[in-house]
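Subject: Sanity check before I submit

Could someone independently write out the structure tokens for this chain? I want to compare against mine line by line before I put it in a report. The sequence has 78 residues.
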Amino acid sequence: MSKKATTFEENMTRLEQIVRAMERGDVPLEESLKLFQEGTSLVRECDKLLDHAQQQVTKIVTLADGSPAEEVLDGNEL
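---
Independent answer below. Compare away.
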């Protein structure tokens, strides 16, 4: 059975829940380790989603003649 694809926002919401649970300090060690593993997996997934989004981002620039042009952003411009 394949895992349902989640959105960046869903992943961030779950990460926030994990952080709050761990910050409370009342989660048993074994559960904390599971939450930590889930959190690191979510961080990796969010990173992939952000990388994909960055590849799709374009910025509008003006050419010498004043006409607009699209330029793909590279990672150094963010």
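---
OP: Matches mine. For the report I'm noting this point. The longest helix spans residues 29-56.
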